[in-house]
Amino acid sequence: MESVPVTSTEAELISEINKLKKEKNAVILSHYYMPASIQQLEREGGVADFKGDSLGLSIEATKVKAQNIIFCGVNFMAETAKILNPAKNILIPDKEAGCSLASSITAQDVIALKKKYPGVPVMAYINTYAETKAECDVCCTSRNALKIAAQLPGDTIIFIPDKFMGENLKRQIQATTKKNLILWNGTCEVHEQFSSRSLASFQKQFPEAEMLMHWEVPNETVADNLFTGKGILGSTNDILTYAGASNSKQFILASECDFSSTLKAAYPEKEFITPCIYCPYMKKINLQNILKALQSIGNNEQQHYEISLNAELLMRAAIPVKRMMELS
Known about the structure:
328 residues; alpha/beta; Rossmann fold; 4-stranded parallel β-sheet; 15% strand
């Protein structure tokens, strides 16, 4: 991670956080969409013990030996960590860190879909809440969705909840497996803002730049701006890998703005241009509330930060999440 300038107050926060992590037997997991100061690893002067995408963090959550996990992401991610570590304390620095996509579908919606399409497997994007996951057959991330879809039985799959990701996947899944996708009408309020017009303007300004597009970007934008030139449509991890392997020195990023910090740190010799669209939920996490979450461990304040799911829900939601990891 590139060095992040900090004020004396921020430096003090970082120092206190890293001190408390050891005292409280805690680790910090950070998503790529976190602000750069939170993504930065402790050994590089930051606070994170691990950073990654949804799948990477899900896997890391199963390896963590510390009793307390501070999850710097949004609620559905922290829930996934709890599902995989029911005996551990999973804390999120702000429980208001939600997700427009996860909120677009409920468990009752999935039950209704299964009644409408009996026998059709339901593949849920990891961007869903535990109650929704519990009604599904398998979860997926943007990194492994194609691989998992290919392994599901039958010629039709219900894919929830992101309609844009579903439309982008549908084209490739039909081409490789002949399977059809039934989609839900959910969207990510960040990625849906990447319009054909805005990206076309960037391409005009930077004609040599390659396009880096997340699966959640609208299908029309992908068709208009990617298939006319070089680039990739994929997960955050796919984008990271592609940018490193490409000979291009200039890229246009169609994803959450702070992901550009990850890319710039990984490839400082390359230029990443992006319409800066931030996830308001991810930005609810900051150094101040990370410190408060750590300070709460072991006292009455812990309940304000800890993810709590009942035993039955944990058991049912674990089935599609663990199946995802097996099929990945």
